[in-house]
């Protein structure tokens, strides 16, 4: 029998990872959802941070149809995408100390809020210091990372620690060091990264858990509707008016 096509192998690898995360991280995902629900119910705010490609799962839960309206993206200039020129600057900035503290000090984040810190490796200064500084301010920190990197690489932070060492809850994406699921004869480098697929699924699962937890408490989750369905804009306008003091992506 001939070997499966690379595209099919990638789907199989991604599905296997998703099933493993569901099986092994389900309890912690539920715990994270409860933390988010606690913050919503208490009048606190929600933030998500990620640098480089780890910013994609963070952005995926902000101003998103079917998502919580209160999720805000905490951006560090120059690190939130590949549009910065040169694109390699973002990777370099992740290793610079002091940025996280400056960003948090000038942000609306305060004690009692929740911050998701997303970093595949969790080894660079920026995500480590983001978690450390956030907890010092009294925020609850949920880290989404690959625990494999803590044994397969060395920390680049001066403390020698990783993101996972500074979180209230750690959600493990199960991604192997290197973030490439496939190899093939004739191709020298491994390829086909799955971290965005898996990490985005983790984030959406937490949002789903939070919505369910709020409903179980008799609280209507502040969800957004698609602007491309009839009545969507009106619905979203009402939600944004009601929760405007906790939504910062409109200012």
From TrEMBL:
Limits of the SIS domain: 36-219
Domain of life: Bacteria
One Pfam family named in its UniProt record: SIS_2
InterPro entries: RpiR-like_SIS, SIS_dom, SIS_dom_sf, SIS_GmhA/DiaA_subfam
NCBIfam families xref list: PRK02947.1
PANTHER family the record matches: PHOSPHOHEPTOSE ISOMERASE (PTHR30390:SF7), SEDOHEPTULOSE 7-PHOSPHATE ISOMERASE / DNAA INITIATOR-ASSOCIATING FACTOR FOR REPLICATION INITIATION (PTHR30390)
Protein known as: SIS domain-containing protein
């Amino acid at each position: 029998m001939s070997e499966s096509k690379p595209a099919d192998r990638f789907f199989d690898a991604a599905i296997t990872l998703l099933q493993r995360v569901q099986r092994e991280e389900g309890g912690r995902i539920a715990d994270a959802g409860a933390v988010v629900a606690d913050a919503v119910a208490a009048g606190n705010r929600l933030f998500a941070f990620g640098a480089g490609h780890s910013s994609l799962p963070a952005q995926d839960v902000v101003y998103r149809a079917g998502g919580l309206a209160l999720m805000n993206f905490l951006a560090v200039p120059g690190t939130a995408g590949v549009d910065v020129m040169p694109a390699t600057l973002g990777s370099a900035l992740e290793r610079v100390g002091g940025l996280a503290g400056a960003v948090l000090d000038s942000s609306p984040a305060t004690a009692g809020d929740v911050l998701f810190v997303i970093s595949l490796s969790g080894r660079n200064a920026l995500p480590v210091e983001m978690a450390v500084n956030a907890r010092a301010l009294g925020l609850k920190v949920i880290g989404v990372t690959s625990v494999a990197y803590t044994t397969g690489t060395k920390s680049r932070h001066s403390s020698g620690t990783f993101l996972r060492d500074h979180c209230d809850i750690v959600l493990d994406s199960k991604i192997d060091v290197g973030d490439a699921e496939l190899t093939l004869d004739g191709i020298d480098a491994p390829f086909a990264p799955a971290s965005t697929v898996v990490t985005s699924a983790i984030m959406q699962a937490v949002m789903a858990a939070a919505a369910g937890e709020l409903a179980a408490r008799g609280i209507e989750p502040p969800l957004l509707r698609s602007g491309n369905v009839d009545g969507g804009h009106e619905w979203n306008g009402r939600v944004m008016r009601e929760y405007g003091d906790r939504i910062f992506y409109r200012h």
